[in-house]
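Incident log, support desk, overnight shift.

02:14 A customer reports that sequence design results differ from what the structure should imply. Their input is reproduced verbatim below. On-call engineer (initials T.W.) acknowledged and began investigating.
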């Protein structure tokens, strides 16, 4: 027995916790700020921006960007006129985001948001669910997001597809390496990426599209909608992104197919719920 009464146990559950050391070490390398700004990940960035621009309330909405890293999305949201507060567990990210015009940033944990009830118009979780490998932690983060979002506001969460590591390693030509293949295959089987240094990432959770809806529902967010970001274009050659004409065609098709159930299992997905 730990000697905690019911209130003490609740407080202990809500105490912010540190990232696992290997996750913190990965982000302390400082690579996250540039990840969405070049190469193939640009598609994820453009598609996230496209979906959010269509769903967000009118300017100036109060947006809580939880797990917003160095502020890649907070930057354009603030430039558009929204009031953006970024919360991230990595102090180096918070320092970077604090330098962005119009962005307030502080250290915090998605599972324990230091924010009043119903105080935000939108809560974005564009990273936290990637690294919460326990379902209870993911539901807790979503529950916290719902708590601080006003009725009628939006909770938006990004997830990575279950087979993402396998597809990515094939795309990069590394799936032929036995240690890499073993780690990627295990992540597709269990959803948990461990020993991830072989793949160039870190410990993470990869969702099956159907389970995201169940996690939202268990957090008091029923009726969520899902949007494929890259869709099958996660597997396409990068040169399509470098040619403005072909890029426009690709983005148009990605938008038109973003709700196709068969295409939700590639790359990244946004799940969006309106708080009741």
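02:41 Re-run completed on a clean worker. Output:
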């Amino acid at each position: 027995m730990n000697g905690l009464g019911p209130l003490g146990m609740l407080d202990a559950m809500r105490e912010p916790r540190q990232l696992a050391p290997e996750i913190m070490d990965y982000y302390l390398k400082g690579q996250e700020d540039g990840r969405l700004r070049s190469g193939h990940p640009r598609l994820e960035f453009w598609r996230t921006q496209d979906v959010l621009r269509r769903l967000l309330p009118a300017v100036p909405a109060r947006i809580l960007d939880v797990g917003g890293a160095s502020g890649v999305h907070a930057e354009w949201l603030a430039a558009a006129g929204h009031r953006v507060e970024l919360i991230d567990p990595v102090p180096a990210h918070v320092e970077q985001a604090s330098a962005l015009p119009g962005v307030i940033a502080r250290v915090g944990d998605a599972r324990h948001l230091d924010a009043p009830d119903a105080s935000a118009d939108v809560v974005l979780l564009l990273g936290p669910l990637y690294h919460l490998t326990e379902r209870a932690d993911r539901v807790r983060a979503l529950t916290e997001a719902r708590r601080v979002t006003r009725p009628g506001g939006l909770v938006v969460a990004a997830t990575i597809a279950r087979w993402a590591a396998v597809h990515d390693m094939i795309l990069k030509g590394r799936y032929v390496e036995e240690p890499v293949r073993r780690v990627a295959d295990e992540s597709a089987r269990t959803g948990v990426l461990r020993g991830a240094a072989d793949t160039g990432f870190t410990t993470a959770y990869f969702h099956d599209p159907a389970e995201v809806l169940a996690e939202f529902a268990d957090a008091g967010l029923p009726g969520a909608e899902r949007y494929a970001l890259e869709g099958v274009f996660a597997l396409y050659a990068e040169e399509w992104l470098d040619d403005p004409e072909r890029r426009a065609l690709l983005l148009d098709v990605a938008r038109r197919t973003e709700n196709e159930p068969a295409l939700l299992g590639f790359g990244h997905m946004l799940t969006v719920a309106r708080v009741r």
